[in-house]
Write a structure and sequence with these properties.
2 helices, mainly alpha, about 70 residues, 2 strands, single chain
């Protein structure tokens, strides 16, 4: 999948520090995004979960996330 094929409301999680991705999430939120998808593979899945928890608990004091879904794509 090329970067141009990835929707604008999706952040791909990789090897960067958690706060780098948390900042990206906040930038999306500040532009008015109502929905955001974090995608990761392999070892980065735990980083994606950490990013979601940091954003929800630190920046929004637990009041942001309505639904959290974990799943796989084939």
């Amino acid at each position: 999948m090329r970067r141009t094929d990835i929707p604008a409301d999706t952040i791909l999680i990789g090897k960067k520090p958690i706060m780098a991705y948390a900042t990206a999430v906040m930038m999306h939120y500040n532009t008015g995004a109502k929905k955001l998808t974090l995608k990761a593979r392999g070892r980065a899945i735990s980083t994606a979960v950490d990013v979601a928890e940091v954003v929800n608990n630190r920046f929004f004091q637990g009041g942001l996330a309505k639904n959290v879904h974990l799943g796989t794509e084939i």
